[in-house]
Amino acid sequence: MRVSGSVVVIAVLDGGSGAELARRFTAAGAAGVLIADQRAGVAEDLATELDRPGCPVVGVGGDIRRPSDVAALVDTAEKHLGPIDLFCVAGPDGERIVSLAELPARLDLERLAELLALVGEAIGEVVPRQRRPIENTATAA
């Protein structure tokens, strides 16, 4: 995975942290980083800390479990940083990095649907599985 010169989006879920990821990407020469966190002010504060010439860092609030928030993150990243190369999800059980090199360069409905599918898979890998309710198999006589 090539980080140098890449535009990276880091989406943080409840219980996750994007701080170490953001530090690694900026140190590795990313062209720009957008950090999205559900907790108010967290991404913005981290962006202020890490922003530097040659690697702008943008912090926003957002919940990637909502398709509208994913679309807004993509739009914001592309407007301020350029086309996204890597989309990262940081959750309580770790992180997942998805390369978007195979997706078309423009944000359209098809690309958004593909991105949502990739993000959904990534969320499933970094969030603990919830216990499923036990189904009542007894039948009334």
Structure description:
With 141 residues, the chain is α/β, with parallel strands linked by helices. Helix content is 35%, strand content 21%. The chain contains 4 helices and 5 strands. It has helices spanning 19-27, 42-50, 67-80, 109-126, and strands at 7-12, 32-37, 57-61, 86-91, 94-99. Strands 3-2-1-4-5 form a 5-stranded mixed sheet, with helices on both faces. A hairpin with a 2-residue loop joins strand 4 and strand 5.
Number of helices: 4
Main structural class: alpha/beta
- Oligomeric form of this entry? single chain
Beta-strand portion reads 15-25%
Spans where pLDDT lies below 50 across 5 or more residues: 130-141
Order of helices and strands: EHEHEHEEH
Which outline best applies?
globular
Fraction of helical residues: 25-40%
Strand order of the largest sheet: 3-2-1-4-5
Look at the structure and give the mean pLDDT: 81
Keywords:
single chain, alpha/beta, disordered C terminus
